[in-house]
Amino acid sequence: MNLHEYQGKELLSSFGVRIQRGIVAQNADEAVEAAKKLTEDTGTGWHVIKAQVHAGGRGKGGGVKLAKSLDEVKSIAGQIIGMDLVTPQTSAEGKRVHQILVAEDVYYPGDSEPSEFYMSVLLNRGTGRNMIMYSTEGGMDIETVAEETPHLIFTEEIDPATGILPFQARKVAFNLGLSGAAFKEMTKFVTSLYTAYVKSDSSLFEINPVLKTSDDKIMAVDAKVTIDDNALYRRKNLAELRDLREESPIEVEAGALGLNYVDLDGNVGCMVNGAGLAMATMDLIKQAGGEPANFLDVGGTADAARVEAAFRIILKDPAVKAILINIFGGIVRCDRVAQGVVDAYKNMGDAINVPIIVRLQGTNADIAKELIDSSGLDVMSATEFQEAADKVQAVLA
Ligand code: GDP
Ligand code: MN
Prior knowledge:
Layout: H1 5-14, E1 22-25, H2 28-42, E2 47-51, E3 64-67, H3 70-80, E4 84-85, E5 95-96, E6 100-104, E7 115-124, E8 129-135, H4 142-148, E9 153-157, H5 166-175, H6 180-199, E10 202-212, E11 218-220, E12 224-227, H7 236-239, H8 249-256, E13 260-263, E14 268-272, H9 275-287, E15 294-297, H10 304-315, E16 322-329, H11 334-348, E17 356-362, H12 365-373, E18 379-382, H13 385-396
Parallel strand pairs: 14-16, 16-17, 17-18
Antiparallel strand pairs: 1-6, 2-3, 2-6, 4-5, 7-8, 7-10, 8-9, 10-11, 10-12, 13-15
Residues 56, 208, 222 line the site of manganese (II) ion.
């Protein structure tokens, strides 16, 4: 689950990480109030207005702007709220901006040398350990840095048994070329950042840029935070931060029905029990010349109600030209699933307007095939993988 920048910063701050301070606002008037409050609290005269959407590269898309007066706060806030922000990380339609962060301007006027660093914390799946990835080349696209100047990216792996050790924090500060007060600040920054990552069950922190001000403060100016979904059950306060407006509506609806659904770009809808079989099914569809329209794991109990829910979700995608149902009957019996498909189909009537290919294999597969073949419905049955693929190919042709 991704957090908004303002939520990520609040999380960091609660663990003692210094952040660029800001207040979230839903409209231009709130933005002006927020700006006044920030001026009282921090003395800042200038403010940055930052679109709060789940996408990076906002600066490039016009979603981050400097306001030098309250009038500018008001007009920029008015411009950004409600806009469809297009960045290198969004689709061409962009993402609707519902709220903004009004933040203190931390790039002091006259500051000739603000340094921007890059820092992330993430899991190195190769070694099974968390690592801190950091670079002197902050504020820019880290992918470009990785391609063109990979020697400017450093990593520091952390032993889960000890957590980050003081010498590691010093190494980070040293590699970033810091000395004096900034060096000390950075050791504190990276230590509390790592602690925040572990204690919040996050799977990614990306702070770009980390800023060193001319008076040697180190702070997070941006924050991309991803919380591990599997930990949300024990991080209720974080789970509450979820913003459904940022997620695909079909995926949200499927999630509420207990279906594991991921929207994809293709034309063949899939309904499968088990994530591994679902992935194999997507390969199968590709081999047959189609493109999967979704990933959908209906789970262990593929009864009529679930099958019907799955049909409705799949058919919300207008690109779907055929549906492939691929069920392995291990614990669940194939004939029950077949009955579920037949019942759901009859129940939905005209709502189903694409051919359906059902491949059932395992316990009672033969009875299941019989059930489908004698149903009189526009459903093709198959027992072999290849047979199912051929039938998909035939209906797409
Ligand atoms: P992103 O483009 O989505 O990654 O958004 P960021 O939060 O990283 O902001 C984009 C850029 O805006 C940063 O790299 C900074 O150069 C700039 N920026 C952010 N905060 C301030 C600020 O307080 N003052 C000024 N002048 N620029 C800022
Ligand atoms: Mn950024």
